[in-house]
Amino acid sequence: MIVAGLDLAKRSYSGLFRDAPDAIVRRAVERLKVYTDVLRRLRQDTAPVRSRMRSEGVTRLFELFATQLDEPYLREVEAQLEELTFPRGVLFGARLGRGAVGTGFQLKRPRSQGWLSRSLDRSGASFELADRDDDGIESLGRLRDQALAEVAVVLSQASDDIEVFLRQLRDELAVLTGAARLHAALTTKGEPACFPEVVEPADGTQGAEHAASAAPRLTARGLYDPALSLQLGERAVGNDLDADGALLVLITGANQGGKSPLLRGIGTAQLLLQAGCFVPAATFRGSLGGQVYTHFGREEDQELRRGKLEEELNRMRTIVERIQPGDLLLANESFAATNEREGSELARQVFRAHLDLGVRVVAVTHLYDLADSLHRTESSRGVFLRAQREEDGERTFRIEPGAPLPTSYGQALYRRIFGEEPATSNGLGRAPGDEGCDPQPQGGA
Fold first, then answer.
1. What is the rounded CA–CA span in Å between residue 17 and residue 119?
2. Which of 82, 242, 323, 335 would you label with 142, given CA atoms 20 to 30 Å apart?
3. Domain boundaries 194-418, CATH class
4. Residue 193 in contact with residue 279, Cβ under 8 Å?
5. What is this structure's pTM?
């Protein structure tokens, strides 16, 4: 209904001289007629369910429809709009100013134009223009535009204001409708969903240099990635998270161990919390924040205009130029396109700068140099998680607190897929006594 009304109003009259006051009035009147019909249907459709609403915002909105947009008011609006189509012509008054120039133009309601009233009215003079008096017609057109100029501004502003309201209502209803459908799809699968507990951020983080930034709250039980769940035949594995007061959440561990799904789950939950919707978790408690930014790996530029690392740095620069204290940065394997030493140093500088600014950073990385250094220097304002792996190499997809390890068990994946030990540079195969660990600090995604 709202979408159809906005689309119909968009196709309203424009005419050849769309910027002339006369054209603006015609276009605004047509749009307002459409919007009046949309508002009437909104009031009619919301009336049966108004008493069942529990949300304070929705209740106020429905009350507005019922009280301020009642039928007598809408009929009066429609009558006024019909008058503004000027079926009896445009009547206006003006005064002669300096140099016999018209001034003080004022639109008036036309009098009855019946033959009897015309024959009895001798109060004013009249004249008629010849059919080919183009100059006279043009002069009258200019006078008409002057009379309609103020009305055109008012009507255009009114139609724009209502359009903005309807567009915002359309977008918010789309979010709520999508959330309702997502909730139905997840609960049908048996996935948990809850309304989050919204709490205020804690006091400033530790250290005088960080005192200006509030520490965010984030605690969850059974948190999962809803997009992944919808792709799986079975339920997704949920994880617990205790990150109250932490500006940094760093996730490391086994390849294909569930690190990225947890990262996406945190970001999705924060967005849904800030939208006033349910979150994909058994329980969730968090604080409101600012914008959510993502820095995920992308496919390499097929046109070879820039390398992968350059592309990553350019995207990070865009984020740096916009991000503010209280925002959330989600980073998935950032700067992994170069070697470990350089990638670690790049990510270390970027992450620490964001933390010092008061930005919350949730990151997944396989760069051990980066993870180990942050674990040693940022433990006071960070939480460190690790994807778990069974002794036989099976992934549990459980993410639990743990210090970074100098491996992501890439050799175990190699053996599972190829059925043999990977050759090493010294020809010795895997490191003696190290089941599935890389001989050098390295790791995979």
1. 36
2. 82
3. alpha beta
4. yes
5. 0.72
